[in-house]
Write a structure and sequence with these properties.
Elements lengths: L8 E6 L4 H10 L5 E8 L8 H4 L10 H4 L4 E2 L8 E4 L3 H13 L3 E4 L15 H4 L14 E4 L3 H17 L1 E10 L11 H4 L10 H12 L2 E3 L2 E3 L4 E8 L6 E9 L5 H10 L16 E4 L7 H4 L8 E10 L2 E8 L3 H20 L1
Parallel strand pairs: 1-2, 1-4, 2-3, 4-5, 5-6, 7-10, 12-13
Antiparallel strand pairs: 7-11, 8-9, 11-14, 13-14
Helix pairs in contact: 1-11, 6-8
Length: 348
């Protein structure tokens, strides 16, 4: 499966020194068909050796080759085939626009372009058909975004339920890890021994992005899904892994067994041989105390969403808990998988 020489695609990482940027580096080192050719960050970091300026936060060592690379400015003059963006949302928009105008294909984690009408907001297993929106982008390059980290966990769990039973309404309460705020993120005095019941813009993102992702592709736009959704977001003192307590009302009557069967069978990318795609995107854990961030966030290298505590309230009303690794499936891993799908479709 490993490609050789010219068949390898060169990729640049924007925001390479941040928490999501570091995940990109971790997941892309030894990738069978992407190789890192450029690391870019702010002007403060540009011109310096990566190992000199990064605060490395991952529990695997920084790859030697990456540590030696000189960090570049985020300017569209890179020698690369694809750009992965992990820039802060408040500055990503214009920088990503410059890359797209200059002919680069950008896979972005930032919120700036997620809700643009001609931009796919994509989770490869959930709405691959939305990729067709790029045909309506008038630039020589293209942009494909991935959703907010909590939204990814929620939507992945809802997708098989929606396809089989329909969804009338959803209420989600999140317990989000501190790494979700980037580095240095939340001050330790604010979060230790504490829960903060507010994360700026997070509730709005979950409520709007979910309807776009679960909406229907209609030639040049998405018809947003029509269900009621409420979200309440909390920051909790967990390092990685966002937990979601979900209430869902289905349109058709169903039962716990049928829902678990739908979650476990969910594997739309089967047969595509994509290196980052997990065999089981959704894993149902029947043990009462599951899922837990510490124990389950790294299932399938952090690419599976784990679901547990599914309880039937009435014929159409259920509650469950879902867990998503926020910097892997919720960010870098989702973007890389989108890149793999795109690359394999381009090849055909
Ligand atoms: N953390 C998560 O769990 C998560 C999940 C999903 C999506 N996201 C999204 O992913 C993006 C990155 O998040 P993060 O958590 O990795 O943030 P972060 O740790 O704060 O990292 C930000 C990165 O952006 C660079 N940067 C800052 N200002 C810049 C500028 N003016 N020009 C160029 N580069 C600049 C920083 O470089 P310097 O080191 O040089 O300042 C750093 O590399 C955000 O849009 C975030 O919303 C994050």
């Amino acid at each position: 499966m490993v490609r050789e020489g010219d068949l390898m695609k060169k990729v640049a990482i924007l925001g390479a020194t941040g928490l999501v940027g570091q995940r990109f580096i971790q997941l892309l080192s030894n990738h069978p068909f992407f190789e890192i050719s450029v690391l870019a960050a702010s002007d403060n970091s540009a011109g310096k050796r990566y190992s000199q300026i990064v605060q490395w936060h991952l529990d695997t060592p920084m790859p030697d080759k990456v540590g030696q690379m000189e960090v570049q400015r985020c300017e569209p003059n890179f020698d690369c085939d694809y750009v992965f963006s992990a820039l802060p949302s408040d500055i990503a928009g214009p920088i990503e626009d410059e890359f797209v105008k200059s002919g680069y294909t950008v896979f972005s984690n930032a919120a700036s372009h997620r809700m643009d009408e001609d931009v796919p907001l994509m989770i490869a297993e959930v709405n691959l058909d939305h990729l067709n929106l790029i045909d309506h982008q008038k630039t020589s390059g293209k942009i494909i975004t991935n959703p907010n980290c909590s939204t990814i966990g929620l939507v992945m769990a809802l997708k098989p339920i929606m396809d089989r039973f329909g969804v009338e309404q959803v209420h989600v309460v999140t317990m989000q890890a501190i790494s979700g705020a980037g580095y240095p993120g939340v001050a330790s005095l604010d979060i230790l021994d504490n829960v903060i019941p507010y994360i700026k813009n997070e509730e709005e993102k979950i409520m709007t992005e979910s309807k776009k992702i679960l909406g229907k592709f209609k030639a040049d736009h998405i018809d947003f899904a029509d269900f009621d959704i409420q979200a309440q977001c909390n920051r909790v003192p967990v390092q990685d892994g966002h937990m979601l307590s979900v209430f869902v009302e289905t349109i058709q009557k169903t039962c716990v067994e049928e829902i678990i069967e739908s979650l476990e069978r969910f594997c739309p990318l089967k047969g595509m041989n994509l290196p980052t795609a997990p065999d089981r995107p959704l894993i149902y854990l029947s043990e009462q105390r599951s899922p837990q961030p510490k124990l389950h966030r790294n299932l399938a290298n952090g690419m599976s969403v784990s679901v547990g505590r599914l309880v039937q309230i009435s014929q159409k009303r259920f509650r469950f808990v879902a867990l998503v690794h926020n910097t892997i499936r919720g960010a870098a891993g989702c973007a890389i998988l989108n890149g793999e799908v795109y690359e394999s479709l381009m090849e055909r």
